[in-house]
Amino acid sequence: MGSQLFSESEKNNQHQMNCNNGNVGPEAKLELDGKTFTLPVVVGTEGERAISIASLRETTGYITLDEGYASTGSCKSSISYIDGENGILRYRGIPIEELAEKSTFIETAYLIIYGHLPTRRELRRFSDLLTENQNLHEDMKYHFEGFPSTAHPMAILSAMINASSCFYAGLNGPRNVERFDVHAARLISQVRTIAAFSYRKSRGLPIIYPKKAYKYTANFLHMMFSDPYEDYDLKPEVVRALDLLFLLHADHEQNCSTATVRMVASTQANLFACASAGVCALWGPLHGGANQAVVEMLDEIYRSGDDGTKFIAAVKDKKSGRRLMGFGHRVYRNYDPRAKIIKRACDDVLAKLNISDPLLDIAKRLEEVALNDSYFIERKLYPNVDFYSGIIMRAIGLPVEMFPVIFAIGRMPGWIANFKEVMDDPKSRIYRPRQLYVGPSLQHYVPIDKRSDSPAA
Ligand code: ACO
Questions:
Q1: Of the candidates 201, 197, 237, the residue with the CA atom closest to the CA atom of residue 217
Q2: pLDDT in tens, 175-203
C-alpha cells in the first residue's frame, strides 16, 4: 500500500511480528444427518485452535449459532494476543508489562499500527506527523456550537470524528488506503483535540489550541486545563499516569468496539467513519463506559455510608439487577493484567500527588471481599481494566463523563491497526453474519378494518 512510514527497518523487523497466517492442523469431523463432514483446523501462533466453518453452510446447509460470539473467531489478526486463563496480554508479541514499564503511548501506537517498534527516525517522523496534524480544520469549531452543554462528550466525539471525514479529500473510495499514514496520524492526533474542545465547550470555557512544543499526553492536558492567561502546571507524574492509561487501552483484540470498527471497515467505509462507529460501541456501560460507571458506583457506596458489604450482597441477589462494575470479562477468567498495572499506578500517583481518596479504600475493600466470595470465585470474576482507572482519572482532575473518552483516545491505535488489517487483506469480504429466524411462519396481510385491538393495547 506504499505507506510512507514503512521502511527498510520494518522489513528487517518482520521477525518481531512472529506471525503466521494460521497453520492448518488436523481436521475436525462433524456428523450430521448420517453423513460425516471434515472441517479444517487452523492453529494460531500461540497454539490456539479454531475449526474453520467457512464452507459449513455450503456443504451441510447448517449455520452455527453463537449468540454473543463467545466461541466465534471473526478474523485472523496479528495485532494483540490474549490468554484469558493466564491473564496474558501482548501487543505484537510484546508483554503489556514490558511496554507499561519501558514504552510510551506514542511509541506503542506505532508498534500496534506498523507491527514493530520504531527506530529513532521512524518515531521522530511519526511524532512530526502527529504534530503537523493536530489542529482541527478551523471550520470544525462551528460544529461544537450545535451541541447542548449537557451533551455527553462521547456523543460529541463520535459525531465530530465522523464530521472530520468531510474535510479531508482522498479519504473516501474503495480500499481508501492511500495516504493512510497521514489519515492515521490525523485521527490519533485530532481525537485528543476534539476531546479537549468538547470538554471546554461543555464547561463554557474558551478553547485552548495545542502547542507544538508539547508531547502527546502533555498537550492533551494543556488543552483540557490551561487558561488563555495561564498555562496548566504539567506535573510529570500526572503526564506519565495518563500516558500509561492510554498505552494500556491501546488495543485488546476483538472486543465489541474493535469488532465494530472491523465490521464497518469491511464495507470499505473510510477510517473516520469506522472510528466514529467504534466510539459509539465503546460508549456503553458494559464496555468503555464501565470506568465512569465504576466511579459512580463507588461514589454511591461512599455516600450511602456502606463499606461495600451491603453492595456486594445486593450484587449477588440477581433480583437487584446490580453488577459489580469493573469486574468480570468475556475473555479474562483471571486477573486482567492491565488492572494489576493500574492498581499499582493508582497507589503511586495518589501518593505522589498527596491525595487520599476514600473511593480507593472502598474499591480495595470491594476487591478483597469479591475475591474471597464464592459468587465471584465460581464465576471467575476478577477486576478488569476499568476497576481502578477511574480513580487515577479523578486524581488527575478529569470529570467522570470524560472517562470513556480517555478510553477512546487510548484505543485509537488499535482501531486503526484493525482497520488497516481489514483493508490490507486482499481476501477481505464484507462481514455479514447469518441468523436463526424464530419469528412467525408465513402470515398474510390483514386490512386495517379487519384487525381487532389486542387486550393490552
Ligand atoms: N457483577 C456481578 N455478576 C457478574 C458480573 C459483575 N460485574 N459480571 C458477570 N457476572 C455474572 C453474570 O450475572 C452471570 O451470572 P449467572 O451465570 O449466574 O447468570 C455470570 O457472571 C456470567 O456473566 P455474563 O454476563 O454471561 O458474562 P459476559 O462475558 O457476557 O459479560 C461483562 C462480560 C460484560 C464484562 C460482564 O462481566 C459485566 O457486565 N461486567 C461489569 C461491566 C464492566 O466492568 N465492563 C467492562 C468490561 S472490560 C472492557 O470492556 C474494557
A1: 237
A2: 655 588 999 999 999 999 999 998 998 88
Catalytic residue flag (residue 386): yes
Ligand 1 atom nearest to 327, measured from its CA: 7
* CA 379 – ligand 1 centroid, Å: 9
pLDDT at 12: 42
152 noted as active-site residue: no
In tens, the pLDDT along 105-155 reads 999 999 999 999 999 999 999 999 999 999 999 888 888 888 988 889 999
- As to burial, measured by CB atoms within 10 angstroms (0-12 exposed, 13-18 middle, 19+ buried), residue 302 is middle
